[in-house]
Design brief:
The complex is a heterodimer of chains A (160) and B (198). Chain A has a single domain, classed as Up-down Bundle (Butyryl-CoA Dehydrogenase, subunit A, domain 3). Chain A has seven helices and no strands. The chains are: A mainly alpha (160), B alpha/beta (198).
Amino acid sequence: MSQQPFEAIVTEHGPTVLRVCRAILGPVAADDAWSETFLSALRAYPDLGPDSNVQAWLVTIAHRKAIDQLRSQARWPVPVAVLPEEPSRDGVSGSGETELWTALMELPLKQRQTVAYHYLGGLPYAEVAEILGGTPQAARRAAADGIAALRQTYLKGTVR
Amino acid sequence: MTEIFTDLPEIDAETRRRLHARLVAAATEAGVIDVAYRTVDTPVGTLLLATTERGLVRVAYPSEDHAAVLEQLATRVSPRVLRVPARLDLAATELEEYFTGRRQLFDLPLDLQLSQGFRRTVLSHLADIGYGATASYAEIAAAAGNPKAVRAVGSACATNPLPVVVPCHRVVRSDGTTGQYVGGADVKKALLRMEAAA
C-alpha cells in the first residue's frame, strides 16, 4: 500500500495531536510542541512502514516533544503569555475548554499523560504503557485517578 | 468512556491555519518539503499545481481528481507533500496571464520526472509549437524521430503531466479535428479558440 500525501496526515490528525499537546502543556506551549511534532514526523514520514498506525506514531512523537518542552520550561522558566483562568465556580462556563486545560494542568504528569494519550489520543492502554513504560494496568489506574480528580475539579464547577 | 471529553469544540479554522503556516515555515527552513502544491482558478476549471525543488512537476484538471493526483505524487515523487501556495506564486501568475491573453510563453523551470522515455521526448518537442499554432500527431511523431509512432504521441499527450504549460492541446488530428485531451475535448477547443483570438 502506498503512503498518503503528508498534507492529508496533517488534516486528519492535526486536531487530535493539538488536543494531546494542550492536555500535557496547556494551550499556549502546545503550539510549539504541535509544530515540532509534525516537522519531526514530516522528516521521518518516508520511512514509516505502510501498515503503521499513524495516529499512535504521531502521539508518540508528540509525547517526546512535550517532554522536551517540559524539561526546557523547568530549566528556563518563562512567563506564560496568557494567564490561565481559574475554573468558573458559579456554574456559568464559557466553552469549558480553558477550564478543562487548567484542570488538567493541576494533575500529576503521569495522570495527565495517561488521560491525554488514552482519551484524547485514542490509544489503548497497552500502547500508552509502551510510550510511558510500566504496565497497561498501571496506565489504566493512573488514567482512572486522573479522571476521578477531573470530576472533582472540572465537572464540579460546571453545569451539565 | 467519560463525558469529560465528549463536548470539546472543533479546533477552529484560524487555529488550524496558524499551525499549518508554522509547520510550512519550519519545514521550508529545514528543506523537507519535497512536493509543494496549490490550486488556481482558471476559465477551464480549478487547476492543481505541484512543484519540486527542480521545478513545476504537475498541472492537473479537476477531471483528473486532485486528491488522486496528490496520492500519485506521494507514490511516484515523495510522500512529503504539503500545501504551500507561496512556492507556486510565479506559476499561478503566469497561468493567470496566459488565461487573460497577456502571456504566450511560459518561462518556468519544469521537472519532467513523471514522463519517461519516448513520451518525454515527445513532450520536449511540444514547446516548438508556437502560441496559436497547431501540429498533427504525425508531425510530432516525425519530429520526435519516429514517424510511425503516431499512437505513442497520442498517449504521450494523454499522459502529459504538465498540460497547458507543455502545450499538448496544440497537437491535433491530421484531418483537422481537435481530438482527445486530458482536460476534455471541449477544454482543448476552448484553449485553441482563445489562442487563435489573441
